[in-house]
Design brief:
Blueprint: H1 9-18, H2 22-57, H3 61-83
Helix pairs in contact: 1-2, 2-3
Length: 84
């Protein structure tokens, strides 16, 4: 039975990082960092492609419509990467 309120936070924290499950916690943290890096990379690439398409190769109302549809997704990727 776990009752984390009975122990000081520093004891609970030490147990999480040094206990039997600490390896999996560290692995999970490393995975989150990798996910954040991948999300940042994807957002940057999408933003770059959309910018190139709408300013150099594909101009006009249809490119603006595509950009308007894609930019919210790119913004979501960026925000999610910052939170990860």
């Amino acid at each position: 039975m776990f009752d984390f309120a009975l122990l000081p936070p520093e004891v609970n924290s030490a147990r999480m990082y040094t206990g039997a499950g600490s390896g999996s916690l560290r692995t999970a943290a490393a995975s989150w960092q990798l996910l954040a890096a991948e999300l940042h990379s994807a957002a940057s690439m999408y933003r770059s492609v959309v910018t190139d398409l709408t300013t150099m190769q594909w101009t006009g109302p249809s490119s603006m419509s595509m950009a308007a549809a894609v930019i919210p997704y790119v913004d979501w990727l960026t925000v999610t990467a910052e939170q990860a």
